[in-house]
Each structure stands twice: as C-alpha cells, then as structure tokens.
UniProtKB/TrEMBL annotation:
CDD domains linked: Riboflavin_synthase_like
Keyword Nucleotide-binding appears in the UniProt entry: no
EC numbers, comma separated: 2.5.1.9
PANTHER family: RIBOFLAVIN SYNTHASE, RIBOFLAVIN SYNTHASE ALPHA CHAIN
Pathway involvement of the protein, from the record: Cofactor biosynthesis; riboflavin biosynthesis; riboflavin from 2-hydroxy-3-oxobutyl phosphate and 5-amino-6-(D-ribitylamino)uracil: step 2/2
Protein species of origin: Streptomyces vulcanius
Catalysed reaction, written as an equation: 2 6,7-dimethyl-8-(1-D-ribityl)lumazine + H(+) = 5-amino-6-(D-ribitylamino)uracil + riboflavin
Pfam families with a match to the protein in the record: Lum_binding
Name used for this protein in its record: Riboflavin synthase
Known function: Catalyzes the dismutation of two molecules of 6,7-dimethyl-8-ribityllumazine, resulting in the formation of riboflavin and 5-amino-6-(D-ribitylamino)uracil.
Lumazine-binding repeat ranges, renumbered to this chain: 1-96, 97-193
InterPro entries named in the record: ATP_synth_asu-like_sf (IPR023366), Lumazine-bd (IPR001783), Lumazine-bd_dom (IPR026017), Riboflavin_synthase-like_b-brl (IPR017938)
GO molecular function: riboflavin synthase activity
Lumazine-binding domain ranges (all copies): 1-96, 97-193
Length: 201
C-alpha cells in the first residue's frame, strides 16, 4: 500500500523490449536505499516489483496488461518519474490509501498558473467519472491529490509549489498522459451497494 506522497523524482535510464513486456531501469537514490529483490516501488503510481538493484538504480519488468492500462509505455530514456516506496505499518498516512493499481489514463487538458498555486485540468474516462467527487481524493501519476472540480469528463486539482517542483506534474503539458487511480473506498462502496440491492430483490 502507498499513500500518494512522492518521495523523489527519479529518471528512466534504460528501456528494454521483451516482446509482450518491457524492462525498465530507473534511478532513484532514496527509494533504492535498502531495496532488495521482490520489493515494491510505485513508478508514476504503478506498483512495480524490483527485479534487480545496483547502486541507486533498480530494474522492473512491466507486463503488457500494465503497459496497456497505464502511461508507462510512453516512457523513454531520460523520462522523469514519480517514485514512492510502500508505507510501513505505523507510518503516518499522509495522503490517502493508494494501491498502485492504475484504473485508467487521462490527459492534461489545461494549466492555469496563479501567484502561489496552479490549477490543472485533466480528462477523465467515462467509466471512472462516478468515483470522482469534489473534495475527494484521486491519484494522478502516483500523487495523492484533492479534487477541486469534478466534471462529467474531467476534473481539476490545485497544485502547491512543492508538488510542482518535486513531481512530474510540474512538467506535464497539455496533451501529456497521466495515470489515474480512483479512491478504492468508492469502488468498495459501489460493490457493496450493488450486492445489497441485488439481495433485496
């Protein structure tokens, strides 16, 4: 489990095609500290497993399913990525419960800079819109954010200077893809209500 609080801005150092999968090598001195084979690291909000670890770099294999459902397939050598290690039991839950299981992708539609923050508008797939509510939580490229406005096919978030400086959202431009993970609580509630309604018929 993750919290959506990005620990560092890493970099893709190599990409190897494996046919129906890809192997990424990524640099991240913070997240590789103490890392070992089999550990999980969230890369732009996608939970990946450490295959190899050497120095401040690690490799991870990304299957076709993940490449199809996320924006990781668009990464290339030199791409910057948000990195986060799983939260430890007893740690503060600084963001919200994030699984690292991407629900879909959106695209940056618009950026509106202000003196002390920036409003970013992101497209929202139709099948995810029902899970997104004003003042609710959403994960964008692994970043736990609060929804400012929830439209039928978009949402907006307000980014503080720290988020702009220390994550990929400070660099994303209109048209760029982003990974989206909606609040898991909303999906559980929907499933429970559906089962309850079905049982009452």
């Amino acid at each position: 489990m993750f919290t959506g609080i990005v620990e560092e801005l890493g970099e893709v150092t190599a990409v190897e095609s494996l046919g129906d999968a890809s192997r990424f090598r990524l640099r991240g001195p913070v997240v590789t500290d103490g890392a070992k084979h089999g550990d999980s690291i969230a890369v732009n909000g996608v939970c990946l497993t450490v295959v190899e670890h050497e120095g401040d770099e690690f490799t991870a294999d990304v299957m076709a399913e993940t490449l199809d459902r996320s924006s990781l397939g668009a990464l290339a050598v030199g791409s910057r990525v948000n990195l986060e290690r799983p939260t430890a039991v007893g740690d503060r839950l600084g963001g919200h419960i994030v699984q690292g299981h991407v629900d879909g992708t959106g695209r940056v539609l618009e950026r509106k800079p202000s003196e002390n923050w920036e409003i970013v508008k992101v497209s929202l797939p139709a099948d995810l819109a029902r899970y997104v509510v004003e003042k609710g939580s959403i994960t964008v490229d692994g970043i736990s954010l609060t929804v400012v406005e929830a439209g039928p096919d978009y949402f907006t978030v307000s980014l503080i200077p720290t988020t702009l400086a220390l994550t990929t959202l400070g660099r994303k431009q209109p048209g760029d893809p982003v990974n989206l993970e909606v609040d898991i609580v909303a999906k559980y509630v929907e499933r429970l209500l559906a089962n309850t309604q079905g049982a009452g018929r």
